[in-house]
Amino acid sequence: MLIEETYFGWGQPTHSITCTAQSWDVDIRRDEGVHPLAHRDELQHDCPNPNCDHRNGFPRVTVRLVCRGCTVVHTVVGEELGRPLSTLTQTIGYGTRPRQLAGLYLWPGPLNPADHEVHEYLVSTRPVARLRPKDCVGQIGRHPTARGPQLWWARALRMQPPVPGRLDWRRRISELTSLDAAAQWIAAQTQTAPVEVTV
Fold first, then answer.
1. For a FRET experiment, which of 30, 54, 120, 170 has its CA 20 to 30 Å from that of 48?
2. Rounded to an integer, what distance in angstroms lies between the CA atom of residue 137 and that of residue 121?
3. CB–CB of 32/59 below 8 Å?
4. Cα first-last separation, the chain
5. What is the largest CA-CA distance in the chain?
6. Shortest CA distance to 58 belongs to which of 43, 73, 47, 72?
7. How many other CB atoms are there within 10 angstroms of residue 109's CB atom?
8. How far apart are CA 80 and CA 84, in angstroms?
9. Inter-residue contact 121 to 109 (CB < 8 Å)
10. CB neighbours of residue 125 within 10 Å
11. Are strands 25-34 and 57-66 parallel, antiparallel or unpaired?
């Protein structure tokens, strides 16, 4: 998963306008689902994958969110694809505290499966409850080199006007030797950037 997908594009389930509880009971149910038209011979499951074993049924997972205050219920149903639904915040990055460097806040991306370390960060100038694209002033990542040691790259200052749903950057640098150097470079870019005035 890309770091942008870790932080952006997620919505929160809504309560009723008058709700004062603003909390959810969350339950997960796993069972066997049946394709809705499986009873019709001409619509029998005919998967081209020779390893497919679910035929007209499939493992189903249902997530139910219930607010006891406003009585709103959200139900999400889908096919369980064998991937684990539970993990730790450290694994996906989202939900962990941002790291502070060079007066900036570095929001970690998912752990790299090869070395179990964070290889990418989104950068903001202040802590926020939920990071949004408009909060980001930079992005930092680690990349391998032909010589062996991994180096860091940094990007700063969003394109204007920003492209919705994407982080496009005006300034870039690579070959930085540390995460701290990358954060310092972004801090310098944000301090020297010209002020843009919209009339």
1. 30
2. 11
3. yes
4. 39
5. 69
6. 47
7. 24
8. 9
9. yes
10. 15
11. antiparallel
3 state DSSP class of 108: strand
Task: Give the burial string for 152-167 (b: 16+ CB within 10 Å, else e).
Answer: bbbbbbbeeeeeeeeb
What are the structure tokens assigned to 163, written together? 């492209």
Burial of 118 (0-12, 13-18, 19+ CB in 10 A): buried
Strand partners, 73: 66
How many residues are present in the chain? 199
Its pTM stands at 0.77
Per-residue pLDDT reduced to its tens digit, 1-59 = 789 989 998 899 999 999 998 899 999 998 888 766 555 555 555 666 666 655 667 78
User: Per the omega criterion (within 30 degrees of 0), is the bond before 161 cis?
Assistant: yes
The sign of the torsion formed by the CA atoms of 12, 17, 23, 27 equals: negative
